[in-house]
Design goal:
460 residues, alpha+beta, Porin, 2 domains, 16-stranded antiparallel β-barrel, two-stranded antiparallel sheet, 4 helices, 25 strands, 18% helix
């Protein structure tokens, strides 16, 4: 634009010079025409200056608008950062974390079992042969609440029944955790490790035989370095709380040392348990299935024991994980205290197991319990998943002080394939030798039973 104005001004100067030199030689009419032309050029120059001013103002306005927009964007970004929007992660299911420590995660598991129970032909029992069942179908949620609080709620829909499994609140402060509600008492490594992560389809025989189950109560645990201390007071399972006659109450304590020696994770634990059965409970019965749940047949069974007053029990546990290999051993003694001059029987159960991954994987461990494997080379990403073989010896003795419930010695093997995290396929075989079995086979109480079972599992 400035170049255009300069050109016009130069042209006007060139035109004026000859006009001045020849002023004496031009007529009045020519002078008037020349003046008109000069006036027109002045107007055009004025218009061009006005347009230039408008352009400069427009540029200034645009620059100001851009600066204002950039400031607004920066302010919006800062405001969004201060609001801490919800973040969504993935741990088998969406996990949402919001402002100030709120979180919410759906959780659940599906475990579908099938298999056979092969007993001597002389035993005619409807629970033998092939069977299948939905062992567990659980849905629930867990999460955190600002201030160190948390929650977990989970229901089981298996067997066409609706059962409340976990329902509790927690409070955490550094190494301290306080839990209130329906929860698992501190009954040992085998019981506290999730059914999603066990080495066999069913836990060791003594866990069900001795009535390990979730109960309503209040507990506290404290961890410091490689030590864990747990204690709680518990009443009954929440399904039994509506029974006005249920007055049972007890307490459980457990201590665990879990030092890591180089690459080897070790575990040593002990627990003590006392339960007052109350005035309304005067009988107790201890029995066990043949290490599968899809049969109701119990080859080992004390029957109802009268004059029951309280239970006292204690357990010892040890385990180690070294790379692909793991081993665990646990024993539990339960004494039934009876009124009057009745003898007090003491029953025992224990197991020893070892396992080895055939792939480059290891068994998980955290907070005094076993955890699931994190598959190193999952299917779908060029890998074959995690493959593990396990062996176990399991002993249960329900005979003492005149009570003859029988003994069960089982020899077990399992194969576990975890193609990806949260999915497992299991095959399990067990051979059980019975002595003084509760069910006779043609008058004989000493015989063997074989079980073969499989499981598909999805957990999240």
């Amino acid at each position: 634009m400035l170049k255009t104005i300069g050109l016009l001004a130069g042209t006007a100067a060139i035109g004026l010079y000859p006009a001045a030199a020849m002023a004496a030689e031009i007529s009045a009419e020519q002078a008037a025409a020349l003046l008109t032309k000069l006036n027109q050029m002045e107007r055009e120059i004025a218009d061009l200056k006005s347009q230039l001013s408008d352009v400069q103002q427009t540029q200034q306005a645009s620059t100001s608008a851009i600066a204002s927009t950039e400031a607004k964007i920066a302010a919006t970004e800062k405001r969004l950062e201060q609001q801490k929007p919800v973040k969504v992660g993935w741990k088998g299911a969406p996990e949402m974390k919001g402002e100030d420590g709120w979180s919410f995660k759906p959780r659940g598991r599906i475990q579908y079992d099938f298999g056979t129970v092969d007993a001597p032909a002389a035993i005619n029992d409807a629970g033998l042969g092939f069977a299948n069942e939905a062992r567990r179908i659980r849905l629930g949620a867990s999460g955190a609440i600002p201030g160190g609080f948390g929650y977990k709620l989970e229901m089981d829909f298996a067997g066409n029944d609706l059962t409340l499994t976990d329902a509790f609140f927690t409070y955490k402060d550094d190494g301290l955790t306080v839990t209130l509600g329906q929860q698992n008492p501190f009954q040992g490594l085998e019981e506290l490790s999730s059914s999603n992560d066990t080495s066999f389809i069913e836990r060791a025989g003594y866990t069900d035989a001795f009535g390990f189950e979730r109960r309503v109560g209040i507990s506290a645990q404290y961890s410091i370095s490689d030590l864990l201390f747990q204690a709680g007071v518990f009443t009954a399972n929440i399904d039994d709380l509506n029974d006005d006659e249920n007055e049972a109450i007890g307490f459980d304590v457990r201590a665990v040392a879990m030092p890591k020696l180089g690459d080897v994770q070790t575990h040593f634990g002990a627990s003590y348990h006392y339960r007052d059965l109350g005035d309304s409970i005067d009988t107790r019965r201890y029995r066990q299935r043949p290490l599968v749940h899809f049969t109701d047949t119990r080859f080992i069974n004390t029957g109802n024991i009268s004059d029951a007053e309280s239970e006292t029990s204690y357990g010892l546990e040890a385990a180690m994980i070294s790379g692909r290999f793991h081993a665990a051993a646990e024993g539990h003694w339960l004494k039934l205290n009876r009124t009057g001059n009745m003898a007090d029987p003491t029953f025992f159960g224990g197991s020893v197991e070892a396992g080895l991954f055939l792939t480059d994987d290891t068994r998980g461990y955290k907070g005094g319990v076993f955890k699931g494997v994190k598959v190193a080379n999952p299917v779908g990403k060029g890998g074959m998943g995690a493959w593990q073989v396990n062996a176990r010896y399991d002993h249960l003795d329900l005979s003492d002080a005149g009570i003859v419930g029988g003994t069960q010695d089982s020899y077990q093997a399992s194969l576990i394939w975890t193609p990806i995290n949260y999915v497992r396929f299991m095959l399990s075989y067990a051979k059980m030798d019975y002595n003084n079995a509760a069910i006779l086979a043609a008058g004989d109480s000493d015989y063997s039973v074989d079980t073969f079972a499989g499981r598909f599992q999805l957990s999240f």
